[in-house]
Amino acid sequence: MNLAANANIALYSSMIVYTLAMLAFTWHLAARVPTIEGVRVEDREAVLVGSGSRDGEPAAPETPSTPYAAGLVGEQTLKSRQRGNIALMLTYLATALLVSSVLMRGLAVSRPPWGNMFEFATAAAAAVGVAYSVLAKRNHWEWLGVFIVAPILLVLGLSLTELYTEAGELMPALKSYWLGIHVSVAFIAVAMFTIGFAIGALYLVRRHREEKPPAKPNFIESLPTSAALERTSYTVNMVGFILWTFTLIAGAIWAKEAWGAYWQWDPKEVWTFVIWTVYAAYMHSRATAGVDARKSMYIALAGFVAVIINFTLVNLVSTFVGMHNYSGM
Q1: Gap between the Cα atoms of 225 and 232, Å rounded
Q2: Among 3, 100, 111, 178, which is 20 to 30 Å from 83 by CA?
Q3: Are residues 198 and 142 in the same domain?
Q4: What is the domain range of residue 184?
């Protein structure tokens, strides 16, 4: 019980540090507002539209029609870099605290710490934090931080206020080595989908402002070009889709072991397949020549909405009564 109590302390501590990180990321974005006076469009580097080959041929470069479409990032100011580094350091610390909370919870109950919705939500938030921390350090994604940390904070807050469950034993159906395999891969997939969603939403905003330049630029104009954001979102979502495919297959194998059949038309099973289908449709649309990338992105965003439904309504609403209802205790 001391470990469980310490896990809660670490969880509260991580929320405090994540809050500071969110404020620091906002502070960082305030220093990223670009200046466009005197910018000549013809001096800007051409932007590659799409991601390589939708129809087997390399994408042709397209010269931006406005300074806003040229990606006016340039050299970040010293102030912007300093604020971004502070925000990232705080994110690393908060994520370390959250991961330690999840680990202590697992040690307290001597099992994988995702046997109920509270544990699943906090572990999933930790997965998002770790994934973002790794990718941000490698790719300098300080500009994305506030759009990742804010949802993490929201999930942790709801977990403590609405989903909190005392540490205890697993339900019999969950006592399987598949719990560690199936659910842990699902965490990583959801983390990828979350990051892909955030970048995809920014892509839509960025593209809109490229097509209809605002009178006054803000931090949106300091982001990578819409083409670059779209490619990045596609790559991240592709990784999530591959992992989700494994999650679906592993879940079917576990169902055969636990209930004697690979498929029972359980609401959780159905929504897991719905998510896979929507993201498969996105991948197909994205790879089809002539399809507007914006339309494909709307499909990806719909896929993430399905992810949210799967891990909230399907687990918590009595309408979706099924074999997985123990996960909502």
Answers
A1: 11
A2: 100
A3: no
A4: 176-329
**pLDDT digits 0-9 by tens, 98-130:** 999 999 998 988 888 887 888 889 999 999 999
Q: Residue 142 has which token pair?
A: 């300080």
More confident residue, 36 or 10: 10
Is 61 part of a structural domain of the chain? no
Q: If you count DSSP H runs as helices and E runs as strands, how many of each does the chain have, helices first? A: 10, 2
- What does pTM read for this prediction? 0.83
| Sign of CA pseudo-dihedral 209, 211, 212, 213 | positive
Could you tell me if 141 and 254 lie in one domain?
no
pLDDT bracket for residue 48 (50, 70, 90): very low
Residues 181 and 314 in one domain: yes
What is the count of structural domains for the chain?
2
> Mean pLDDT score of the chain, rounded to an integer?
82
Taking a C-beta distance cutoff of 8 angstroms, is the pair 109, 60 a contact?
no
Asked if 80 and 14 sit in the same domain, the reply is yes
Q: With 90 as the cut, is the pLDDT of residue 265 above it? A: no
Residue 325 in any domain: the answer is yes
Please state the separation of Cα 146 from the chain's center in Å. 12
Q: Measure Cα distances from 57 to 52, 53, 60 in Å.
A: 7, 5, 9
- 274: amino acid identity, one letter: V
